[in-house]
Every structure is written in C-alpha cells, then in structure tokens.
Amino acid sequence: MARTLTHKQLETAVHNAYDACKDLAGGQNAHYIPYLANVDAGLFGISLCTPDGHVISVGDTAYRLGIESVSKVHTAILVLRQLGAAGLLEKIGADATGLPFNSIFAILLENDHPSTPLVNAGAITACSLVEPVGDADKKWQAIVENMTDLLGSAPQLIDELYRSESATNFENRSIAWLLKEYGRIYDDPAVSLDLYTRQCSLGVTAEQLAISAATIAADGVNPVTGKRIFDAALAPQIVSLMATVGFYQHSGDWLYTAGLPAKTGVGGAVIGVMPGLFGLCAFAPPLDDAGNSVKAQAALKHIINGLGLNVFSNEAVELAK
Ligand code: GLU
Known about the structure:
By secondary structure, the chain is α+β, with helices and mostly antiparallel strands. The chain contains 13 helices and ten strands.
C-alpha cells in the first residue's frame, strides 16, 4: 500500500526547511555578471506546488530573480515539443559533461554533439533550433510563450541584467562560434546567443518556478492554469536531463545525497521535481564553486530527506486527496 503524504506535512516540511536554513552562511553571489553580484545576498525563499494546484510559499518567493540557467529546462521543453525526444537526442544529446556550465573543453571533447541542453553549449544550440528558424522575433515569442505556459504567468525581462550579461558574455560568444564550426548551430550564431542571453535575463519569482516544476511533476499539465503544456510521454525525458546534469560537475554528488532531480541557475534559484508529488523552487543568491546556490541546496535536501523521499526509492508514495 502506498504511503500517503498530506498537504499539511508538505507545509510543515517547507517551513522547517526555511527555519533550518535561513541563517546558513557560505557562498558568494555570481561575480562574473555585474547585475547578479549586486543582488541582496540575504534574499531567501522556498515554494512548493502540488499537481492539484496547492502552492506553499515562505520567504522571498515574490522577488523577481534572474532565471539564468533554470531557463535551460524550459527551452529544452520547447525543443522537445517542437522536435520530439529523438530530435533533441540527435541534434543536442542528453549526456552529462562532468564539467562546469560554460566548459569549452566539454565541446572539444565531444565535438559531434553539445552533450545536453542543460549546459551553456547545448542551451545555445537549443535556442538555434527553436522554430521558426530564421525569424529572431518569432523565436523569442515562442520562448516566452512556452515559459509563460510553464510558469502559469508571464516572466518579465530584467533589462539591466540583459545589458549586464550581453556586455560580459565573452565565453559564451566563443562557445557559439565553436559550435558553428562543428555544425551544431542551426540558425545564425549571434541570434542564437542573443536569444540564450535574453532568456537567462528573464525575471521570475520562486513561486512561478515552483509552478513550472510542478508542471513537469504533473506530466505536462500546469496545476494552476489546468492547461496541458506538453505531452505526458516527454516528462521522463525532462526529468532525466535534470538528474543527469542539473548541478553541472556536482550532479552525481547532488543526486546521491538529495535523491531529487533538480536544476540550478547562477541567479540563485534551484528547481526540483518529484514526479507525481510536487515541484519545488528554493532561491538564495550566494553560490558554491560550481555556481549552485548554497542555501537553496540545503533547503531542498532538508525537505526531501525530512519527508523520507528519494526519486530512486521503490517505496510508493502518493498525495492525500
Ligand atoms: N547566463 C549564465 C551564463 O551563461 C547562466 C549560467 C548558469 O546559470 O549556470 O553564464
């Protein structure tokens, strides 16, 4: 018989994690993007959303944070919707790199494909693949519409972050052109890079991100709007991408200790998906050496370990009706 989790238990778990982690020290804001370096390092919030549309939030969950690499999940979903699971595998790949998010070495090592849409190289390729190829405005519209569907409400571009990142993204420029050299950019490289930079600069709240994670946990139906966003058959592919490389070079250690497929961004957000049970987002700007939020990691682990959950466990767990 399945163990039943009540909404009350989830609420207690979220509040306990907030209390246990709120004074945790350590880490540093992303320093290589000037806008992010100046964000208040004391911000902290956690949101959880269930497939039946309950949202539990504590702390700074209405703060508009830079989505950064969490957006790689949303645009990977768009590419899956447009090209299907086999198309994404063929054009980008679904492998771990074991290397930092902006690794050029990873591209040189595996120059036949950019490994995964959840590192910078694969995410820039993903932007190049977004249809309609050749029309930058319509591509951007498709990226924002898909993100809006997943979040349940619209993101807003943070102009200052976009300018800050565009002025300093020299490494990503190298990545885009190297991918072009290897035949792995399917649209104009400058347009593809710009779309990637702009999507990273979208402002979203932790609550919106938790709703998008819950859309994945609910096999493609947004729990708040009730709208089907992607085919249920794609959900395991999305979760597998997150599990494989969501924490970059620390992905294995994360999965081993937290048992939660999750994806981080240098803006300080981490989203997690427990299929069938809930989507989560924790947010706090200071990051570890791999670019993953220190406090958000601790908070998510606290919740998952505290509830005795693990995506690899064979214990059947269901949400109380
Ligand atoms: N926009 C950032 C970059 O490309 C995202 C990195 C991240 O969030 O991991 O460097």
